[in-house]
Specification:
Strand content: under 5%
Helix content: over 70%
Largest sheet: none
CATH class: Mainly Alpha
Number of strands: 0
Order of helices and strands: HHH
CATH superfamily: Histone, subunit A
Shape: elongated
Oligomer: single chain
Length: 67
Protein backbone atom coordinates (compact mmCIF):
# COMPACT_ATOMS: atom_id res chain seq x y z
CA UNK A 1 0.00 0.00 0.00
CA UNK A 2 1.19 3.46 -0.89
CA UNK A 3 2.04 6.34 1.42
CA UNK A 4 0.35 8.81 -0.94
CA UNK A 5 -2.97 10.26 0.23
CA UNK A 6 -5.78 8.59 -1.73
CA UNK A 7 -7.81 11.80 -1.84
CA UNK A 8 -4.98 13.55 -3.70
CA UNK A 9 -4.65 10.66 -6.14
CA UNK A 10 -8.40 10.68 -6.70
CA UNK A 11 -8.23 14.41 -7.51
CA UNK A 12 -5.55 13.66 -10.10
CA UNK A 13 -7.75 11.05 -11.76
CA UNK A 14 -10.70 13.45 -11.75
CA UNK A 15 -8.47 16.18 -13.19
CA UNK A 16 -7.70 13.74 -16.00
CA UNK A 17 -11.40 13.62 -16.83
CA UNK A 18 -12.99 10.87 -14.74
CA UNK A 19 -16.39 11.63 -13.25
CA UNK A 20 -16.27 8.87 -10.66
CA UNK A 21 -13.26 7.08 -9.18
CA UNK A 22 -13.30 3.85 -7.22
CA UNK A 23 -11.09 3.44 -4.18
CA UNK A 24 -9.22 0.56 -5.79
CA UNK A 25 -8.45 2.75 -8.82
CA UNK A 26 -6.98 5.41 -6.52
CA UNK A 27 -4.97 2.76 -4.66
CA UNK A 28 -3.65 1.26 -7.90
CA UNK A 29 -2.55 4.62 -9.26
CA UNK A 30 -1.00 5.56 -5.90
CA UNK A 31 1.07 2.36 -5.96
CA UNK A 32 2.26 3.06 -9.52
CA UNK A 33 3.03 6.71 -8.76
CA UNK A 34 5.01 5.78 -5.64
CA UNK A 35 7.04 3.18 -7.53
CA UNK A 36 7.78 5.70 -10.29
CA UNK A 37 8.68 8.44 -7.78
CA UNK A 38 11.13 6.16 -5.99
CA UNK A 39 12.81 5.23 -9.27
CA UNK A 40 12.95 8.88 -10.31
CA UNK A 41 14.35 9.86 -6.92
CA UNK A 42 17.07 7.24 -7.19
CA UNK A 43 18.08 8.54 -10.62
CA UNK A 44 18.07 12.14 -9.34
CA UNK A 45 20.20 11.18 -6.33
CA UNK A 46 22.64 9.45 -8.66
CA UNK A 47 22.91 12.59 -10.78
CA UNK A 48 23.57 14.73 -7.70
CA UNK A 49 26.22 12.28 -6.49
CA UNK A 50 27.86 12.30 -9.92
CA UNK A 51 28.00 16.11 -9.72
CA UNK A 52 29.73 15.85 -6.33
CA UNK A 53 26.71 17.02 -4.34
CA UNK A 54 24.75 15.49 -1.49
CA UNK A 55 21.69 17.65 -2.16
CA UNK A 56 19.26 16.65 -4.89
CA UNK A 57 18.06 19.71 -6.79
CA UNK A 58 15.02 20.36 -8.92
CA UNK A 59 17.25 20.24 -11.96
CA UNK A 60 18.40 16.71 -10.97
CA UNK A 61 14.78 15.60 -10.80
CA UNK A 62 13.97 17.20 -14.17
CA UNK A 63 17.00 15.56 -15.78
CA UNK A 64 16.12 12.20 -14.26
CA UNK A 65 12.60 12.55 -15.65
CA UNK A 66 13.93 13.07 -19.16
CA UNK A 67 16.19 10.03 -19.09
Amino acid sequence: MSDLPLAAVERLIRKAGAERVSEDASEALADILEEYAITLGQKAASLAKHAGRKTVTGEDVKLAGRA
